[in-house]
Amino acid sequence: MSKNTTTAADRARPVDRQKAHEIQAFGHLIHLPNALSQNAASQSVENLNQVLADTITLRDLYKKHHWQVAGPTFYQLHLLFDKHYEEQNDLVDTIAERIQMLGGITLAMAADVAETTIIPRPPKGREEVPVQISRLLHAHEIVLEEARSMARQAAEAGDDGTNDLLVSDVIRGNEKQVWFVSEHLVDVPLVKAD
Ligand SMILES: [Fe+2]
For 122-179, how does the pLDDT look when each residue is reduced to its tens digit (9 = 90+)? Predict the structure, then answer.
């Protein structure tokens, strides 16, 4: 094989299976010129990673229930659960990108999320609608409780951007979903009034 032929072949070959050291270790903060103290940024990154793990878990709980729902309200709940899944998915991206813009590193992979979330793990099997909804409401309440306390911490530390994200996106979004889902557990007659 001539030198020219070898060079042409090499140029077309993908340089795959490359390895190198990480450029930033998890838990290590990069300082960005955003006029925030290192303490404020690092507290927000830690809090946001917790709410990220719980939001990913709640998002996935909605998809599980979207697939596994059963019974006469199947169609409406199938659609509602998927709508809430999409909204939680948007939240996941908003929270994760905030972590990166603060100089931190987002949790991303399922195993790391599973280690971090405080939302109880559901069974692999299917459950009745009232149980599915109770699980969702419990998960929402966990997120809301932590997000409110994290929002106050961010405000006190001067991280208004994180405070706004937690209040405007996480808290308001979760409160609205709680309303929509809760109403399905109100025991009102379906056909004949009491
Ligand atoms: Fe679907």
Answer: 999 999 999 999 999 999 999 999 999 999 999 999 999 999 999 999 999 999 999 9
From the CA of 91, how far away is ligand 1's center (Å)?
A: 19
Q: What is the separation, in whole angstroms, between the first and last Cα of the chain?
A: 90
CB count, 10 Å around CB of 8?
Answer: 10
Structure tokens at 14: 């993908």
pLDDT at residue 8 is higher than 90: no
Cβ proximity of 99 and 32 under 8 Å: no
Distance (Å, whole) CA 93 – CA 99 = 10
Q: Which of 146, 123, 141 is nearest to 58 (CA)?
A: 141
Span from the CA of 81 to the centroid of ligand 1 (angstroms): 9
- Residue holding tokens 């019974």? 71
- Interval between CA 82 and ligand 1 midpoint (Å): 7
Phi, psi of 95 (to 5 degrees): -65, -45
Distances (CA, A) of 72 to 93, 183, 190: 34, 16, 11
In angstroms, what is the span from residue 123 Cα to ligand 1's centroid? 20
Whether residue 57 is predicted with pLDDT greater than 90 in this model: the reply is yes
